[in-house]
Structures are given as structure tokens and as C-alpha cells.
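ARCHIVE CARD
Drawer: 12
Card no.: 0347
Subject: one protein chain, sequence and derived structure
Cross-reference: see card 0346
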Amino acid sequence: MPEVFVARQPIFDRTQHVAGYELLFRGGEATTALVVDSEGATASVVLNAFTEIGLERLVGAKPAWVNVSREFVLGGLARTMPPAAVGLEILEDELLDERFVHALIELKRQGYRLALDDFEYSVSAERLLSLVDVVKLDLIALGREGMIREVARLKPYGMTLLAEKVESHEEHAFCAELGCDLFQGFFFCRPELLHNRGIVANRASMLQIVAALQDPTVQLAQLERMIGRDVGLSFRLLRYINSAFFGLRFEISSIGQALALLGVENLRRWATLTVLASIDGKPPELTVTALVRARFCEQAGELLPGPRPGELFTLGLFSVIDALMDAPIDEVVGMIPFPPDMRDALTERKGEKGALLDCVTSLEAGDFDRAQRLVRGAGDLYVEALLWADEAAGALFEQPAAAAA
């Protein structure tokens, strides 16, 4: 079976919690082979991904949204996906004749949620506005004036409005004020550029670590796994171990090294203080993104001659540190004595490590051609990282028993 590329892009509600995921698919052979039956190829990729990976593993309990074409709908292939779990996105420029509209009405009757993608008002598209549940508005394509115009036209219909290609917190605030309830884009991975704000560390994960530290039999390897799941804790730990207090003559750039030098007693004090100083305020999906990148870099870098896996995990984890700190990445990375190649990769995407970050961010954006050029087997590695990160985040965000007691 050829490599299957799957990208998962989160859809956020007004509180920046994930309301669903858009899934993007493509078979790895699509760039080199002439696919005669494009609809059959698309169906094969989608169904293989659902069958081989499992929809519940890709999106959990959240709804999945999948782009479908006119031929995909008319051929009955859309009905192979469960209506309780999958919404269908229809491109606005499809031929909206009576046959297609009737097929959409039938899908709606069967319980499917429908979305109209890349919407811009036209007479032909108007006939779908009473049928669809969600209309997606492309902020980059429409611009702010176009967004204002389209939202005003759509409000009387009462459907949910989704702003896509939202790339900054300022744009998110604009679209929310305009009346959009759902948002898609990489704004959550961008800093708000508010200086002098300490990094937000996840309280639940730190409580888990404090609880584990009370166990006299706890092993440093266990602690390394737990701390490695949280970029906030990792950042604070590396800052601490490299501070003037320790007076080390060499730089520590991995969690394992830091824990070995600290020991359990020092770590217990550090973790307790961090719990007291911690604050919340970032969407959990940002931590999931950090974990996906960390795992991907760790796995994809196995063939590189120099870096250790722990260092590459840290690389991916810290690629969102600017968003967590709400400060420019070069400013934040400058606070940690990373090796030059790590610093260059994080700030400028230079070198082999920078290529790993370029690859995983290309996958996130659905740019599968670029990802495939950068890392062989990138699609399979990304899916593995995605599933691993979801599992790790599930344990990370659930309330620990020690905290509930």
C-alpha cells in the first residue's frame, strides 16, 4: 500500500477549544503517477485512512470534516462515512444543478452536516444557504471588507459562520467581533507579542509530576517521560538547570540530562515551586501541536548522524515556545543556552534540524509535496506522531488523583 498522507487541522470555537478537525488526505503516489480515476483514488485514500488508522483515533470524540466533490457525492461515496462523526465540505464552485442539490438534500436527511467552503456570494450558491449548517469564509481571499460584506449577507440565514485562514490573534478578534463562531488557521500557534509574561505551564501535568515525586521509588526515566509531555515544564526546567545558581561549565539541552544532574530532591522542590507559580491561558491544542512536532522530529531524525533523539524531541517541543510565551521566538530561545544549530533551527529553520521543523509544519498545512521532498516517509511518521501525541495529551490533561484528593 502506498504512503497515505493525512493532515488534521483544528477548528476552534470562541473559547479556543477544539470544536472539530478538518481532515486532508492524499495518496503518496499522486505526484508521480497519472491517476485516471481521481474520484476513486480520493475515495481509496479516505477509506484506507479511516480503515487502517481509525477515525476515532484521528479525531477522538470531535467531529471530522472532509472535503467532497460533486462526483464523490453523486457516486454515493460520501455515504460510506458515518454521518454521526463526519461533516461534508462542498466547494462553492461545484456545478450546483438539480441533481447535485437533490443529492445534498438526501445526505442532509440522512443526518450529515454540510458546510459550504470558500464561500463568496453568487446566485447559484444562494440556493444552498438554507441547506448547509456551516459557511466557511476565507479571510485572506476576502479581506476584511469582503468579510464584513459576506457576514452581513449570511446572518439572516442563521447558519454557523467559520472564519478560515486566520493567522493572528488580531484577526481572530476581528472575526469574532464580526459574528463568526468557529475559526480555523494558525493564529493559536502565533504569539500575541505581550512582553514580560512568564510562560504558561499546564497545571494538571505539573500536579501529576509533584504526585509522582512523592513516590520514593520513582525513577528518573519516568519523570523524563512526564516532563517531556509539557513544553512549559521543559522550558522552566532547562532555564533552571542552566541558571547561574548551578554554575555549570557546559550547556544542558535535554530533559534527561537535566534530571540526572538535579536528582529527585532538587526536582521535588523545583516542581512544587513551579506549581505555585503556574498560570493557565493557552488552548490545549497548542500543547498537542508541540507534542506532535516533538515526536515527529524525534522519529524523523533517527537517520541523522549527530543529534540524539532527546534533543530532537526538545526541538519539536520548543517550536511553539513563542506562542506560549507571547514573545518573538528569537527572544525566547535566546533565554535558553541551546547549541547554535538548535537555536538556528528554531529561529530561522536552518540546517537539518530546521528541515525537520519545515517538514512537520508543511504537513500541518497540507503541503504534502514539500513534506515529501524534505523527509522520506513523512506521511507515515506524521500519522504515528499524531496518534502518539493524542494519547500523551489525554493523560496530560485528565485530572490527576492527587489533585482531586
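Annotation on reverse: The beta strands are 4-12, 18-27, 64-68, 86-91, 113-117, 134-138, 160-164, 182-183. The chain has a mean pLDDT of 81.
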